[in-house]
């Protein structure tokens, strides 16, 4: 049986008594019949201003509409603002009043939301912002109690993101005030544009400053840490995303409403129809939230992939590698040594073709390496992302070069001749499966008329005219997601583009493995590789 220490019991008891005392005090304040409408009759007037120099600059105006939409709209003003005893109080102008310590923000939130106040006390703002030996940072430094609205801690709206970030930038862009509170630092020493982050504009428009600058173990988003300790890319772009963890900190009413769906307990269809009839967030989206789906119609690199798909691709790649390894081993053990003969050289690969080939190969390797690192959240994600984006844009130029080279005379090698194609495919397949082990002649040698055998030709046509263009299109849509349609073929656009890009990359990986192995199937292990360096195709007369 779980036991609770005496210290915890005393803590709960003290909090309960304090809360009871606060409620009693608030009730007494209500009895004075000083209601909010009386206060707002003056404070909702935009012409209100301080009448003494002591309050010069004080924020006295409260927009009534904003106040009525705030979380404190039903809280009496006098629950927080109280007069000192023995004076005219709020009836006098200027008011002789004070907000006593027992009625500070912490007096309420420290009881029912003590995790928030505990995190706030550890914030860098508390430890660093001092003036004259006293801390100058309080709840009111960020939050306006009169306009504070309920916020979704893990999935804020665009408006809530902008509003939250405005609180931070409002202080961090005030040159004089920032310098005074930060111990002499200049505003220009900050990188408020976050230029080092890939897709900085997208991050700043989708995330709040606190999403990254709160401590990684802080689910309340109130323990702001020094910039050097900010959340790294990997803490969100991973399977154990901190954004997912924070989602479970404060479940919303929508989560609760859909939490029993899709569990086989009720008639799900009727419950979803009932939830949808009430308006608001669709029931299906509520189910996605409860089941841990991070975003709707979006893709967060490294965070919301599909483990089953990853596993299937890895098994397929491993199986292909095993087949190629066994094939190569059999070639070494069984194949007979080619009879001696004279080597022949034919110039087939022009300089533009070779330049394109090696640029294309480099792009493929860098894109695959950086893509794998991002997908599995390895290393410095921002560096990998920059490398992936730069290489992807380079591949666009390289593909344009490929088209230009083909238009200038190399394109006939990619024209598939259907006449006798099936027979040629069968002969080439038989050669790779059997003939190569017995030292048989190649069914088709490269020539100026056709550099590729039929299997190579179909493979290269499929890769360069189908897979690469689709990779470029889906990659550009991921780089510039604002141009991605919301719906494609009836499916969420961003997710469809992301998964298509991933599958195309997997196909490219498998092609690259086969291509590298086939480079060893010439009349010697390095014959074909040398050809793509100096442009000459080499073969033995005895192998013809």
Automatic annotation (TrEMBL):
Provide the protein's localization.
Answer: Membrane
Q: Domain Cytochrome c7-like: where?
A: 160-238
Q: How does it sit in the membrane?
A: Multi-pass membrane protein
The coiled-coil segments of this chain are none
Q: Which InterPro entries match?
A: Cyt_b561_bac/Ni-Hgenase, Cyt_c7-like, Hydrogenase_cytochrome
- What are the TM regions of this chain, as residue ranges? 312-334, 355-376, 388-408, 458-479, 499-520
Keyword set for this entry? Membrane, Signal, Transmembrane, Transmembrane helix
Q: Where is the Cytochrome b561 bacterial/Ni-hydrogenase domain?
A: 349-535
From the UniProt annotation, give the residues forming the signal peptide.
1-31
Q: Which NCBIfam families match?
A: PRK15006.1
What is the protein name for this chain?
Thiosulfate reductase cytochrome B subunit
């Amino acid at each position: 049986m779980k036991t609770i220490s005496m210290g915890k019991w005393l803590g709960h008891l003290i909090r309960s008594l304090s809360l009871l005392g606060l409620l009693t005090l608030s009730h007494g304040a209500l009895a004075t019949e000083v209601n909010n409408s009386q206060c707002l009759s003056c404070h909702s007037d935009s012409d209100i201003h301080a009448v003494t120099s002591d309050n010069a600059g004080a924020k006295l105006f409260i927009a009534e509409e904003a106040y009525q939409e705030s979380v404190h709209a039903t809280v009496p003003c006098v629950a927080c603002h109280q007069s000192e005893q023995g004076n005219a109080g709020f009836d006098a102008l200027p008011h002789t009043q004070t907000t006593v310590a027992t009625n500070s923000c912490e007096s309420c939130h420290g009881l029912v939301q003590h995790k928030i106040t505990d995190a706030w006390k550890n914030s860098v703002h508390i430890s660093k912002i001092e003036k004259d030996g006293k801390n100058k940072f309080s709840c009111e430094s960020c939050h306006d109690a009169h306009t504070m609205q309920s916020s979704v801690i893990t999935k804020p709206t665009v408006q809530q993101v902008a509003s939250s970030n405005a609180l931070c930038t409002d202080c961090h862009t005030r040159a004089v005030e920032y310098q005074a509170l930060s111990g002499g630092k200049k505003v220009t020493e900050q990188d408020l544009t976050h230029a080092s982050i890939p897709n900085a504009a997208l991050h700043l428009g989708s995330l709040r400053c606190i999403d990254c600058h709160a401590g990684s173990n802080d689910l309340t988003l109130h323990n702001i840490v020094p910039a050097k300790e900010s959340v790294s890319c990997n803490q969100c772009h991973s399977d154990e995303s901190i954004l997912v963890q924070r989602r479970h900190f404060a479940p919303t009413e929508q989560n609760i409403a859909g939490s029993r769906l899709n569990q086989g307990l009720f008639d799900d269809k009727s419950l979803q129809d009932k939830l949808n009839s009430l308006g608001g967030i669709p029931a299906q989206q509520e189910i996605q939230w409860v089941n841990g789906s991070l975003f709707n119609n979006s893709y967060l690199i490294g965070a919301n992939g599909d483990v089953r798909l990853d596993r299937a691709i890895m098994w397929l790649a491993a199986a292909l590698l095993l087949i190629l390894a066994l094939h190569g081993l059999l070639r070494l053990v069984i194949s007979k040594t080619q009879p001696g003969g004279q080597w022949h050289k034919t110039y087939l690969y022009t300089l533009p073709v070779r330049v394109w080939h090696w640029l294309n190969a480099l792009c493929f390797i860098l894109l695959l390496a950086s893509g794998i690192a991002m997908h599995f959240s390895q290393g410095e994600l921002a560096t990998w992302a920059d490398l992936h984006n730069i290489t992807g844009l380079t591949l666009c130029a390289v593909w344009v070069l490929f088209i230009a080279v083909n238009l200038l005379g190399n394109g006939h090698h990619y024209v598939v001749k259907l006449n006798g194609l099936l027979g040629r495919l069968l002969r080439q397949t038989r050669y790779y499966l059997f003939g190569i082990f017995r030292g048989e002649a190649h069914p088709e040698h490269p020539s100026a008329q056709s550099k590729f055998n039929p299997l190579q030709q179909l493979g290269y046509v499929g890769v360069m005219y189908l897979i690469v263009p689709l990779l470029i299109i889906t990659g550009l849509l991921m780089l510039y997601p604002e141009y991605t349609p919301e719906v494609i073929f009836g499916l969420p656009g961003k997710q469809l583009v992301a998964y298509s890009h991933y599958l195309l990359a997997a196909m490219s990986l498998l092609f690259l493995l086969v291509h590298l192995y086939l480079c060893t199937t010439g009349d010697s292990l390095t014959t074909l590789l040398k050809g793509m360096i100096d442009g000459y195709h080499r073969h033995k007369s005895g192998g013809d």
